[in-house]
Amino acid sequence: MPTDLFSSKDQELITSAIQSAEFETSGEIRVHLEKSCEGNVLDRAAQVFENLAMHKTKLRNGVLFYLAYEDRKFAILGDAGINSTVPENFWDDIKIRMQSRFRAGHFVEGLCEGVEMAGNQLKSNFPRENDDINELPDKISFG
User: Fold this and answer.
1) Which domains does the chain have, with CATH numbers?
2) Residues linked to residue 83 through DSSP beta bridges, in sequence order
3) pTM > 0.70
4) Exposed, middle or buried: residue 141 (CB in 10 Å: 0-12, 13-18, 19+)?
5) Residue 6 — pLDDT band, cuts 50, 70, 90?
6) Pick from 123, 126, 118: which is nearest to 98 by CA?
7) Are 125 and 79 in contact (CB under 8 A)?
């Protein structure tokens, strides 16, 4: 577990950001951390997306924030439902904002901001229903 990168308090802040982002949407957000990523970061993120069963949400509106912290690689991957509704450069815009924070050494803030931005988009396109259930865990997963 990368406690040198994210303390237990940092992890709580990130989990809280996920819960807050999901509060008004049926969308699901996950954060996955790994030490390294061999090969293409989007390919690895897609593999993790599948391993976490994110493609099995009812409305296909899951979003994965994948970070390989030692290799300084990250990707944001949305499922088919959310990808069909976001503007063309939406994920790139979030990634650019996060990179700016990361370069300044503000990893938790950058990640939380990205999660918030994704949550706002999910809320616009997939508002929370009365019978909504949390389909995926909110805690950070580690590889």
Assistant:
1) 8-126+134-142 (3.10.310.50)
2) none
3) yes
4) middle
5) confident
6) 118
7) no
The 3-state DSSP class for residue 29 equals strand
Q: Which residue is listed with tokens 């049926």?
A: 26
Please answer whether residues 63 and 28 qualify as being in contact, where contact means their C-beta atoms are separated by less than 8 angstroms. Answer: yes
Q: So what's the pLDDT on residue 1?
A: 45
Q: Which residues pair with 28 in a beta bridge?
A: 62
Q: Are 79 and 54 in contact (CB under 8 A)?
A: yes
| C-alpha span between 141 and 94 (Å, rounded) | 21
DSSP-assigned letters across all residues of 50-103: HHTTGGGSTTS-EEEEEEETTTTEEEEEE-HHHHTTS-TTHHHHHHHHHHHHHH
Q: How far apart are CA 14 and CA 63, in angstroms?
A: 14
Tokens of 106: 């503000």
Burial profile 26-54: b = 16 or more Cβ within 10 angstroms, e = fewer:
bbbbbbbbbeebeeebeebbbebbeebeb
Token couple for 105: 């050494």
